[in-house]
Amino acid sequence: MKDYITKALVYDGYIRAYAINATETVTEAQKRHDTWHSSSAALGRALIGTLLLSSADLKTDGDRLTVKIQGNGPGGAIIVDGDANGNVKGYIQNPHVSIPSNEHGKIDVRGVVGTEGIFSVIKDLGLKEPFSGQVPIVSGELGEDFTYYLAASEQIPSAVGLSVLVDKDETIKAAGGFMIQVLPGADEVVLAKLEERLAQLPRVSDLIDSGKTPEELLEVIFEGERMLFLEEQPVQFSCDCSKEKFSRAILTLGTSEIQAMIDEDQGAETVCSFCNNKYHFDESDLTDLIEEITGGKK
Ligand SMILES: [Zn+2]
């Protein structure tokens, strides 16, 4: 099954609901960064949360959204970038965290992320200034942190559930989640009904583990309610880095620095932190860059 997000309207359109299967996306991230299970779950949840936020907030090509989670846990910073077309890329500073399960027998994501720190979102919507919102980390489990961010920074009452299941061989067994947002004007009755639903909700990891599609996930959450399903959006791990982009970065170092790379290392290797792709610059590549600066070459 390919990864996608499904969107639906519930309670006469006062509730917007999103559900996602992101198993392939998190699998790709796990392979690229060689993450161990605890890091895989933390990065995976951040990827899923960012995809859900991007799907709700980004409308046009070129819109981007970056989620930065800087906690005090052993995982270090988690940085994830999403766009309007369902592309996501991201990394965790320490991909090799492997800690015991929590008291529920689940991966201890809070133990990876930490319980204190900053959760921030930067949205570039093509306006003059990017939007930026910042809240403290309140849980470290990340679903609650996305929920808190939406309530505190964007004034959107919501519920976010994120889950990543990792197999014994470190591969990703399943990854997915949901996001429910209450739109302005929803009355008390709707809010009370929603609260009741959420209180009875099975653990999201159990829903994901049972192989439910995004549509089925929403049907469990809103059992018996009329739902209007909107479009589906395919999602994937995808990075837009290129050798050309890294050349631009090397150019900014200046001629003497580039000459030093030639003299001392006979070349340079750059690594994209988001996707781990490596780009090699040999002596002639670097000489070309120097000539570009000095105007020795058209
Ligand atoms: Zn990249």
Automatic annotation (TrEMBL):
Q: Which domain of life is it from?
A: Bacteria
Q: What family name appears in the similarity comment?
A: Belongs to the HSP33 family.
Localization, per the record, is: Cytoplasm
Q: What are the cysteine partners in each disulfide bond?
A: C239-C241, C272-C275
Taxonomy, top ranks, is:
Bacteria, Bacillati, Bacillota, Bacilli, Lactobacillales
Q: Which GO terms describe its cellular component?
A: cytoplasm
Keywords for this entry?
A: Chaperone, Cytoplasm, Disulfide bond, Redox-active center, Zinc
Q: Name one Pfam family in it.
A: HSP33
Extract the HAMAP family matched here.
Answer: HslO
Give the Gene Ontology MF terms in alphabetical order: protein folding chaperone; unfolded protein binding
Described by its record, this protein's role is as follows: Redox regulated molecular chaperone. Protects both thermally unfolding and oxidatively damaged proteins from irreversible aggregation. Plays an important role in the bacterial defense system toward oxidative stress.
Q: What is this protein called?
A: 33 kDa chaperonin
Q: Which organism is it from?
A: Enterococcus alcedinis
Coiled-coil ranges from the UniProt annotation: none
Classification via PANTHER family: 33 KDA CHAPERONIN
Principal localisation: cytoplasm
After translation, how is this protein modified? Under oxidizing conditions two disulfide bonds are formed involving the reactive cysteines. Under reducing conditions zinc is bound to the reactive cysteines and the protein is inactive.
Query: Mind telling me which SUPFAM superfamilies this protein's record contains?
Result: Hsp33 domain (SSF64397), HSP33 redox switch-like (SSF118352)
